[in-house]
């Protein structure tokens, strides 16, 4: 893993040494893809355009947020900002990295929540837009444009997370794949016809189950809060 982590540090160095005008772009992208945006921006927008799509965005955002926390407890995952010093790499080799206000994230880093949660929650929007443009255009390029924009956005999010030293490259790749898989697999199972009470009950169940699992893992002697 050390070799993989070291390669990730070199990629972060390469990104940070790029053109200065790219820095505001990476910072903006990592802010845009903050998991909180799913609930404060993407869900309201999707719900305004189409109720079913909006509920699907909210549902996938909720489940992927919960699953991301659970996966991090078991996969752990170092954070580049901390690892580069704790591993001793900074004292062995010349490492030129810059710190940003969002660099000092704590907690396990695998998989990337930004990539996983955004990837899952935006999938219903992508499929809805793809269906819409497919009805209005015969051009294959136009039909694939929502999927292309989705892929480019997730790539940009992943690079932005490496740029700010919040994640290693392999963590963002896992997050992107997990998010897309969740979106693809769970969108058709969105409980659109259920009442608000159902979603409140599910949210409480996820919260209580995660707290119970946290307690069990700690009791088993695994320090997931390392």
Automatic annotation (TrEMBL):
Membrane topology (UniProt): Multi-pass membrane protein
Coiled-coil intervals, chain numbering: none
Subcellular location: Endoplasmic reticulum membrane
Principal cellular location given in the protein's record: endoplasmic reticulum
GO CC terms, sorted: endoplasmic reticulum membrane
Keyword ATP-binding: no
EC number: 3.1.3.9
Gene3D superfamilies associated with the record: Phosphatidic acid phosphatase type 2/haloperoxidase
Keywords: Endoplasmic reticulum, Gluconeogenesis, Hydrolase, Membrane, Transmembrane, Transmembrane helix
InterPro entries in alphabetical order: PAP2/HPO, PAP2/HPO_sf
Superkingdom of the organism of origin: Eukaryota
Gene Ontology BP terms: gluconeogenesis; glucose 6-phosphate metabolic process
Protein known as: Glucose-6-phosphatase 3
Annotated source species: Cochlearius cochlearius (Boat-billed heron)
